[in-house]
Amino acid sequence: MFSSAAAVGSVAAYAGVGGVVSLLAHFTPLYLGAVIPLVLASFSRLLVWRWTIGIVSAVAFIMSGLLVLREVTRDAGPSVASSARDQIKIIQFNALRSNQDVGRIAEWLIAQRPDIVTISEARVDLRDALAKRAGWRAAGGHGSLMIFTARPYLKMDRPRLNQTHTPSFVNATYGVPSGPIEVLTTHFNRRRGYTVRPQREALERIVEKLPQQRMIMTGDFNATPWSGEIRALDRASILTRRTGATASWPAQVFGVRWPLPFLAIDHVYAGPEWATVRVERGPWLGSDHYPIIVTLAPTKP
């Protein structure tokens, strides 16, 4: 069972097929671990159809392994030591619209002293708490996607597309010590009738219309590094995904904290004039996602 699902999932990831089959590709690391016992068991003479099981499991193992190896060896952009100047800290977090623990979220975010916070499924009471306690400003403050900073944005040039299934997004230009940067956050919708591919294609057109050298793009993409959609997005611009395979979901199961997230669906991209200092996963804050923390420094201080 696992070997067949692994083979289907791996092929789906390579082909970028939509629907349920494509969904299987997101679980590639799980398939990789699951087929190892089947490969080993195929050497036992007691197993019925052992050669068939062995061959199918081996193919699934190889294909899943290639996807994982591709991510591990992928160029994740420039990196720099923790002593680099003009660092900025970005937090990407899907706060979960039904999450009632707004006070704890606000306290943790403020304690991190970030430069940029991007929230998916944001709530008005969280916006108000951050404004009252820290004086933070919100771009997109009347929607479910918000960008929080200590200073107001310099301008907001929102590209417009004549296209259905455009993903939710907020973007604005901010001033930091190293110069102006473009920040964009998005949330891909996986509800019925929405697939990731047209949203990804629309996002690519949006990014094309904005300055990319110092851009920072974040979001809940509802797609893992092993999926065809994220791999296509990785190729679409000069932005580089800095979060790698840092898993952010699930953070809870049936309302109870789950300590072992296994899907990397929250990502942070950055332009070539940013070097990565560190990537971290934050604590559980009552959401089904863990926050992702990325620290960057300019390549040209």
What's the CATH class label of the largest domain?
Alpha Beta
Instruction: Give a quick account of the main beta sheet: strands, pairing sense, barrel closure.
Output: 6 strands, mixed
Total count of strands? 13
Principal-axis shape equals globular
* Order of H and E elements: HHHHEHEHEEEEHEHEEEEEE
What count of helical segments does DSSP give? 8
Low-confidence stretches: 1-19
Distance between the termini: 53 Å
CATH topology name of the largest domain, in short, is Deoxyribonuclease I, Chain A
Percent of residues in helices? 25-40%
What is the CATH homologous superfamily assignment of the largest domain?
Endonuclease/exonuclease/phosphatase
Mean pLDDT: 86
Overall SS class: alpha+beta
* Cross-sheet strand order for the largest sheet: 3-4-2-1-13-12
- Rg result: 20 Å
> How many distinct folded domains?
2
